[in-house]
Amino acid sequence: MTASGRGRAGAKVVLLGEHAVVYDRPALAAGVPIHLDAEAWPGRGPRLEADGPADERGAALVGQAAAAVGLDPGAWIVRVRSEIPPGRGLGSSAALCVATLRALADAAGRPLPRADELALGRRLEVLFHGTPSGIDPAAASLGCSLRFRRGEPPEVTPLSLAAALPLVIAWGGEARRTAGAVGGLRERWMQDRACYEALFDAVADLVNAGERALVAGDLAAFGRACDENQRLLEAMGVSSPDVEARIALARGAGALGAKLTGGGAGGAIIAVAPDGDAVERALRAAGATVLRVLVPAAR
Ligand code: PMV
Questions:
Q1: Ligand 1 neighbour 58 (Cβ under 6 A)
Q2: Average pLDDT, the chain
Q3: 29 CA to centre of ligand 1 in angstroms
Q4: The CATH number of the domain where 227 resides is what?
Q5: What global pTM score does this model have?
Q6: Whether residue 142 is found in the same domain as residue 177
């Protein structure tokens, strides 16, 4: 028997601007070529079958996504295979939401227009973390590098880089939840809005400077924007000693800049590294899992 519908979505990294993007500032993201595949099968549901423990959020995702594409929410099972490590800030939940939607839309025989996929992807991501900006489903949906600003509808602008962007992505064994990092920052913001709003404004300036650097092909300037963004993420309280140790290793091995990516509080880092061999060696020697990607210049 073959599946009634199939869908695939990719991982992402936030290049600049995570967390501030939840507070309406712009951010840059890029698709990463590791994927999550979903297959939709008719059956007693809603149910999500994936590696790891069954989770009621998975069933809710399948039910809501089925209803959104006009299918009976109780009549579908979605099976998932994923190359994206969860809990590392690489957008695994958003890829799960977008791939599930695509598989069910395929089963319903009605591929979703991009705008609907973005809106539904964001609505479904709420199941996994409370106040998402929508940048993750946008990156999972487009799969290219983009500038994002939240809103109804969000601003999603694909970027044309002057040159491909060489990144080393690295993470360790510690998993953490984006919802925890986002929620903790919200509590601190409620205690001292002026302080955090100033940090978010500084991030917005860096996002604009980083975008100009990428469009001009100035990797050194983009690397400096990454370093500066990391400093601001530390000030927001969303970094961690593990992440900072990996960033120091990457910089010491010649990276032009490095920062956490995504939710932080653990999770993955990105390092801008035109000559990535030494950076990769240093990170692997410290026990990190490493992925090298070249973000394409144009879509
Ligand atoms: O879900 P993650 O860990 O890939 O990070 C998403 C980026 C945040 O800005 C931290 C949250 C959001 O919804 O924008």
A1: no
A2: 93
A3: 10
A4: 3.30.70.890
A5: 0.93
A6: no
